Amino acid sequence: MQNNIDSPDGQNNNDYESWLDRPKYTNVKTLEDRTETRIPQGTWVKCENCLSQLSIEQLEKNSYVCLKCDEHLTISTDKWISLLSDKNSFKELFSQIKTSDPLEFKTAGNSYKDKISLLQKKLQVDEAVKVGRATLNDIPILLSVMEFSFIGGSMGSVVGERIFLAMKMAADKKIPFISVARSGGARMHEGILSLMQMAKTSAGTSMLSKAGSPFISIITQPTMGGVTASFASLGDIIIAEPRTQIGFAGPRVIQEAVKQKLPKNFQSAESLLENGFLDMIVSRNNLKQTLSQIINILKN
Amino acid sequence: MEVPILLDFEKKKLGSLHAKLKILYAKREKREKDYQTIKKLETKLQSKAAVIYKKLSCWQRTQVARHSSRPYTSDYIQHIFKDFIEIHGDRLYKDDRSILAGLAVFNGRSVVVVGHQKGRNTQENIEFNFGMPNPEGYRKALRLFKLADKFSMPIITFIDTPGAYPGIGAEKRGQASAIATNLQQMFSIKVPIIAIVIGEGGSGGALALSVADHIHMLENSVYSVISPESCASILWRDASYKKEAAEALKNDAKTAFRFGIVDSIIEEVPGGAHRDSMLTAKHVGEAIEKSLKTLSRKSVATLLAERIEKFAKVGEFL
Ligand SMILES: [Zn+2]
Q1: What is the pTM assigned to this prediction?
Q2: Could you give the CA distance from residue A179 to residue A171 in angstroms, rounded to a whole number?
Q3: Do A100 and B223 touch (CB under 8 A)?
Q4: Residue B115 shares a structural domain with residue B153
Q5: Is residue A49 part of a domain?
Q6: Does B7 reach chain A within 8 Å, measured CB to CB?
Q7: CB-closest option in A10, A99, A234 to B234
Q8: Cβ-based neighbours of A229, under 8 Å, separated by 6 or more
Q9: B72 with B220, same domain?
């Protein structure tokens, strides 16, 4: 057995590519994009889980949580930002830091460089994370939201740098840092540089701790590999959305390694809560209120 | 005497010499002439190996890094430390044998040593879980780091793992959390930390022992975000493209050095560390000594600030 854990048989904790194969993610446009760009007001959207037809107005009022089955539908980074921050309070930071191709990474016929520019055009998103300053119920915060549609929300140099700088700023200002994670793990295309972003963002959490800035980590569907194994698991308070898949190695890698069926609800937020690795599971509708309550108590 | 098995890329040039040596080594009653022949063949093999090893591809280095005769953590402990006392268990759940940890004396100084441990045969591989730690291993390591902090002992870590173990129990007991906690806590340990990548630096499972002030890599060791096989099966949809994946990932020491992740590359003997464990260990010992000298002079505040700075500056972007 000489395979990497993040590896055996290759589908490892970094297997965000295989996540992208799931029907749910093959349409890289998020629900919100569909809402805003293609579906006129008053039309209906099919729930990804129970397949119920839901009206956009209803969903909009319910934070994009299915009214029939409670499925927390995938929403875009900007939607997350407006969900958690006060109206027009978000000011994006460090967006001048742009992706390069340090390894000149190529697979058969495809270059990382091309992949990046293609995605940037297609998604109108420049990287797998957006960070900025905002207020949450009038509390100044630093906010970081990952974008799964951008190479599986994977963490490379830009993601690491933006998150680290935002953490550093929160520590300097002694204000809370709030992160929304959703990621397949470290980004393969930047090799060891991506691995090191795990250490770098963890260094950021250490600075937050020393400064006494609360760090609340929100884990959303799905969060795996190097992101779970770094900053996302280091919040003073760790919150997940219901039924989120959270883990280190990918299920297929584990199955390959242990040669047995995986238990029910394996790597679900519910089982992590039971095993003591989460503080709470919070419905998206109650998230902002819960955050402000926690911060007010911590900073009192 | 034993001859290490040949890797596929060595067979063509070293095959016949290797076979001759094997016979001579096995000979029960060696005569003076046999010793002379052995010496001659060994020199010849070494110089031919040196030519091959001058220019290895990333995949070939991966093979060398995984060679079954490559010196392991326990070998370095034996060769360059004195009075090693093994410490067991995480005081929470278990003793994870895939991480070897203990107290020792290095050049007259008390130190804490922690490293991944691989096995050389089936029985050892089961015992050490192929060098793939469960959460308990990382928690044992952290316990030792805190002990080192308490008694002001520098920490020396050896990195040699395919990765953290992808098991059901490992996930249930918080593999990700254990790794993350080490990454964070190592930034607060107030003693010098020196890491040496001696074989496979396999992803997060390797990183969890490598948040160090100085990181050294053996010339033919590898350090990567993912193994070539895994990367190939994801991006090429076929694990057999491992060679291409290794070249694309650039998992060698030179790349890690170029990006400022690794502070020095420790030269191996021509033909790889497994052809002379003693000499390789000597070189490793010298690198540790040099780092200790530099790091011991720094104040705690400087040490901690520079450790954060070391990782903060890693990243390439426009
Ligand atoms: Zn539904």
Answers
A1: 0.93
A2: 14
A3: no
A4: yes
A5: no
A6: no
A7: A10
A8: A13, A185, A198, A248, B164, B175, B176, B177, B179, B180, B183, B204, B208
A9: yes
- The answer as to whether B88 is a domain residue is yes
- A66 φ/ψ sector (left φ>0, alpha ψ -120 to 50, else beta): beta
Residue B318 within a domain: no
Residue B2 lies in a domain: no
- Residue A223 belongs to a domain with what CATH number? 3.90.226.10
CB pairs under 8 A between A and B: 266
Range of the domain at B217: 62-313
Number of domains in chain B: 2
Same domain, B175 and B194: yes
Residue B8 contacts A where some CB pair is shorter than 8 Å: no
Q: Per residue of chain A (300 residues), what is the pLDDT tens digit? A: 333 333 333 333 344 544 444 434 433 344 444 444 444 456 888 998 999 999 999 999 999 999 999 999 999 999 999 999 999 999 999 999 999 999 999 998 889 999 999 999 999 999 999 999 999 999 999 999 999 999 999 999 999 999 999 999 999 999 999 999 999 999 999 999 999 999 999 999 999 999 999 999 999 999 999 999 999 999 999 999 999 999 999 999 999 999 999 999 999 999 999 999 999 999 999 999 999 999 999 987
Distance from the alpha carbon of residue A49 to the mean position of ligand 1, in angstroms: 5
Chain A residues close to B168, C-beta within 8 Å: 254, 258, 260, 262-263, 266
Residue A231: strand, helix, or coil: helix
Residue from A181, A184, A272, A246 nearest A218 by CA: A181
Q: Is residue B304 part of a domain?
A: yes
Owning domain of residue A151: 75-299
Task: Using DSSP, state whether A40 is helix, strand or coil.
Answer: coil
Q: Which residues of B touch A265 (CB under 8 A)?
A: none
B215/B175 same-domain check? yes
Question: Which chain B residues are closer than 8 Å to A254 by Cβ?
Answer: 166-168, 171
Structural contact between residues B249 and B226, judged by C-beta atoms closer than 8 angstroms? yes
